[in-house]
């Protein structure tokens, strides 16, 4: 088969603007995601510098609040979600033996919405009155009262949401229609499975967020009163609508990372994934349960006792399928011939960090205890363990795991390990003390604090600089591997199994023009 | 020579359209949550919106002299309404079932005639269903001339069916200007026209048997 003329594509900037190739778009998504990570990371440093000591020194409180708000929006909608969509674009077609994504033109559009949305979000900070400052959850009344910067942020959230809905439609169509003959659903790699479920979650809840955001916009400008008590509305309604989106969103961020762990751990344990079918069912149960637990984010609003009990038990139930997944990963490693290359370190580290986050989540699920933890640094520590542990560790794991396949070069293993360990230490130094701060009653989203919290806050700030600083190593490794390095074999890792490893490293521009045979 | 694969373009498009419909439906569901929320609050009586009762029905309630409940009163005039507004009684010990009356005091500090509407709320929210008002200045709009002051009564009864664990109930009023342009001049928000009817009739609509 001659593929030479298929490799032709426009050169330079036009290639990237007009591309409909899943590998190009995957790369674009990843570059975009990590650009946003730099911006969001710098914002977190502003927060940590301000919290170096009590009192107000660096920023005024309004700007501090903008930083916490925009840091979260950038990291969630700009980094974690596009990062995993990038992985999906790169990997799903070559993992299921498809020639490309199902709707390549749509794919191009869903990416190119992102830079504009991100620009809008960042510009909001430079508007009169500043950017959104009421927290990423954009609760009214603050989000109804904010200045024009809030409008920028709301429109930006709309666009980011549209992008991920379009991306999800594409992913579902690809997985359901484009699998190589013989690849039944239950033969799909776990990463593909978790993305299929994530994509369904996305099209179920992103429109609900779009609805909530539209209601906010019409409340602000078109005289509706969904959330304004003055007009017979209720700000609490927003919290219900928001968290109906917001809780599944957490699983949107972590499920693809679970898929990555399920690819990496069997490779380096040199054993097939333990309990494949139970992994699929556990993922689906987590997704289902995520729809009926939203009000555990709002225990303190004065719900009836029955409601609090229901949401408490439903939330705790999620620990069961999550436990199934964690035990399956451990069982996969059990008596395996394990080696600890960088991707494996990220996977094990990710499972470890995520499990700590899951345990603190269980603590927060207990209604009476939550009244103490609510809106404290304990919550901040909890969701960073969950989202950093799963999503960020998952992304780094995935990138180091597949980078040799993408670029054809091995990355620098020594530096990769340095990157992992510095991030691991820095992350824990940053966020572990925040558990104690929260238990002692330090509230989140406040630029000042009582004197006795100083020491833990200092550890946290040092840890933040270490974590962010360590990422320089990552950028160096990634850029280096794109240009040079030891030639990677097609199989790359000895223990791999899957269609992507049957392709050359790097794979040609078009792959699987002829359907592969599935054993 | 092997034939290159054709992508199932038609099937893809059909699936994409179906998923697009799901997306639109979920967008609609987001909006449907608003009326559903109101219905749920009404069904469980948890939104702090108080009930209303006729005087005769209230008088017919048995008085539970074996327990007392503290009822606290508070009030606030929003920025759009230049009124002084406060309860004349801060706190009252009541027996459930006994009809009580207290007064709020209001004065127009502006130099024009202003019409305001008070919006009540009861905390804890779950007690709202058992807090019944017989008469209230919030049932109608209040119009005050410049400098005019007024005492406004609230007559209420706490239903004896109130949860045994509740010891304190707080009744609060937020007073809004009803004129949007006027409220803006004082730097605040007005009560929406539609919302105003909503508040005036809300309680009535919820009264048992009405």
Features:
A: 519 residues; mainly alpha; B: 210 residues; alpha+beta; Ctag/Cox11 (Pfam 04442); 2 domains; five-stranded mixed β-sheet; 29% helix; flat; disordered C terminus
Give the DSSP E fraction of chain B (strand runs of 2 or more residues): 25-35%
Shape of chain B: flat
Query: Can you give the mean pLDDT of chain A?
Result: 94
Q: Can you write the helix and strand succession of chain A as a string?
A: HHHHHHHHHHHHHHHH
Percentage of residues in helical conformation of chain B: 25-40%
Low-confidence blocks of residues of chain A: none
Record field, number of beta strands of chain A = 0
How many domains of chain B? The number is 2
Assign the structural class of chain B, choosing from mainly alpha, mainly beta, alpha/beta, alpha+beta, or little secondary structure. alpha+beta
Distance between the termini of chain A: 22 Å
How does this structure look, described?
The complex is a heterodimer of chains A (519) and B (210). Chain A is mainly alpha-helical and 519 residues long. Chain A has helices at 12-18, 22-50, 61-96, 104-123, 142-145, 148-177, 190-221, 235-269, 276-289, 305-317, 319-333, 342-365, 367-373, 377-407, 413-439, 454-483. In chain A, helix 7 (190-221) runs parallel beside helix 9, helix 8 packs parallel to helix 11 and helix 9 packs antiparallel against helix 11 (319-333). The model of chain A has no long low-confidence stretch (mean pLDDT 94). Chain B has 210 residues and is an alpha+beta fold. Chain B folds into 2 domains: 9-44; 48-206, Sandwich (Ctag/Cox11 (Pfam 04442)). In chain B, 29% of the residues lie in helices and 33% in strands. Chain B contains 4 helices and 10 strands; from the N terminus they run αβαβββββββββαα. Chain B has helices spanning 9-44, 55-59, 180-185, 193-206; strands spanning 51-52, 69-77, 83-87, 91-94, 99-108, 114-123, 131-136, 142-144, 149-158, 168-177. Chain B has a 5-stranded mixed β-sheet with strand order 1-7-9-5-3. In chain B, strands 4-2-10-6-8 form a 5-stranded mixed β-sheet. Chain B starts with 8 loop residues before the first helix and ends with a helix. At the A-B interface, helix 6, helix 7 and helix 8 of A face helix 1 and helix 4 of B.
């Amino acid at each position: 088969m001659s593929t030479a003329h298929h490799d032709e594509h426009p050169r330079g900037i036009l290639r990237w603007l007009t591309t409909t190739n899943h590998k190009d778009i995957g790369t674009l998504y990843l570059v975009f995601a990590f650009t946003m990570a730099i911006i969001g990371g710098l914002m977190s440093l502003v927060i940590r510098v301000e919290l170096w000591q009590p009192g107000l020194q660096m920023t005024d409180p309004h700007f501090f609040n903008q930083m916490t708000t925009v840091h979260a929006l950038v990291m969630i909608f700009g980094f974690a979600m596009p990062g995993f969509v990038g992985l999906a674009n790169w990997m799903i077609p070559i993992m299921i033996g498809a020639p490309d994504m199902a709707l390549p033109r749509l794919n191009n559009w869903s990416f190119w919405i992102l830079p504009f949305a991100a620009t809008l979000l960042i510009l909001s900070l430079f508007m009169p009155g500043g950017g959104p400052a009421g927290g990423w959850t954009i609760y009214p009344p603050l989000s109804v009262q904010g200045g024009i910067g809030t409008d920028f942020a709301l429109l930006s959230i709309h666009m980011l949401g549209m992008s991920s809905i379009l991306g999800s439609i594409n992913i579902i169509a690809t997985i359901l229609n484009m699998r190589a003959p013989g690849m039944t659903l239950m033969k799909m790699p776990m990463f593909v499975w978790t993305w299929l479920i994530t994509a369904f979650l996305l099209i179920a809840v992103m429109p609900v967020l779009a609805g909530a955001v539209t209601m906010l916009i019409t409340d602000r400008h078109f005289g509706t009163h969904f959330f304004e008590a003055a007009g017979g509305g209720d700000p609490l309604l927003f919290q219900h609508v928001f968290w109906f989106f917001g809780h599944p969103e957490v699983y949107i961020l972590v499920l693809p990372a679970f898929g990555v762990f399920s690819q990496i751990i069997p490779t380096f344990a040199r054993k097939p994934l333990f309990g494949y079918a139970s992994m699929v069912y556990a993922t689906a149960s987590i997704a289902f349960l995520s729809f009926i637990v939203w009000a555990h984010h709002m225990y303190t609003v004065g719900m009836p006792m029955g409601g609090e009990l229901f949401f408490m038990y439903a939330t705790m139930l999620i620990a069961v399928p999550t436990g199934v997944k964690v035990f399956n990963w451990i069982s996969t490693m059990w008596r395996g011939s394990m080696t600890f290359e960088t991707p494996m370190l990220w996977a094990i580290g990710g499972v470890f960090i995520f499990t700590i986050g899951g345990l603190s989540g269980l603590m927060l699920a207990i209604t009476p205890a939550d009244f103490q933890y609510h809106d404290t640094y304990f919550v901040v520590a909890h969701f960073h363990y969950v989202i950093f542990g799963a999503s960020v560790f998952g992304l780094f794991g995935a990138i180091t795991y597949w980078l040799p396949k993408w670029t054809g070069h091995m990355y620098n293993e020594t530096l990769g390990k340095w990157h992992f360990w510095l991030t691991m230490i820095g992350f824990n130094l940053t966020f572990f003390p925040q558990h104690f701060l929260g238990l002692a009653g330090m509230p989140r989203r406040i630029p000042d604090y009582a004197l006795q919290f100083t020491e833990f806050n200092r550890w946290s700030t040092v840890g933040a600089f270490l974590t962010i600083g360590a990422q320089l190593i990552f950028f160096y490794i990634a850029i280096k591997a794109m240009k040079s390095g030891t030639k990677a074999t097609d199989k790359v890792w000895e223990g791999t199994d899957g269609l992507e490893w049957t392709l050359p490293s790097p794979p040609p521009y078009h792959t699987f023009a002829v359907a592969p045979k599935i054993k | 020579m092997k034939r290159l694969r054709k992508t199932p373009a038609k099937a893809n498009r059909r699936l994409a359209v179906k998923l697009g419909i799901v997306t639109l439906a979920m967008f609609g569901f987001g909006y449907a949550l608003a009326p559903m929320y109101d219905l749920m609050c009404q069904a469980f009586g948890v939104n702090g919106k108080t009930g209303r009762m006729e005087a005769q029905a209230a008088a017919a309630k048995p008085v539970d002299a074996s327990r007392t409940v503290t009822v606290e009163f508070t009030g606030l005039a929003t920025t759009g309404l230049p009124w002084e507004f406060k309860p004349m009684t801060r706190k009252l010990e009541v027996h459930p079932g006994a009809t009580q009356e207290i007064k709020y005091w209001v004065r127009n500090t502006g130099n024009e005639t202003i019409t305001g509407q008070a919006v009540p709320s009861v905390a804890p929210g779950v007690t709202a269903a058992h807090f019944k008002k017989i008469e209230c200045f919030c049932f109608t709009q209040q119009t005050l001339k410049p400098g005019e002051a007024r005492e406004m009564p609230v007559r209420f009864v706490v239903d004896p069916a109130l949860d045994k664990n509740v010891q304190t109930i707080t009744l609060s009023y937020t007073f809004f200007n009803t004129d949007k342009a006027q409220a803006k001049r004082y730097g605040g928000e007005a009560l929406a026209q539609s919302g105003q009817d909503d508040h005036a009739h809300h309680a009535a609509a919820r009264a048992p048997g009405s």
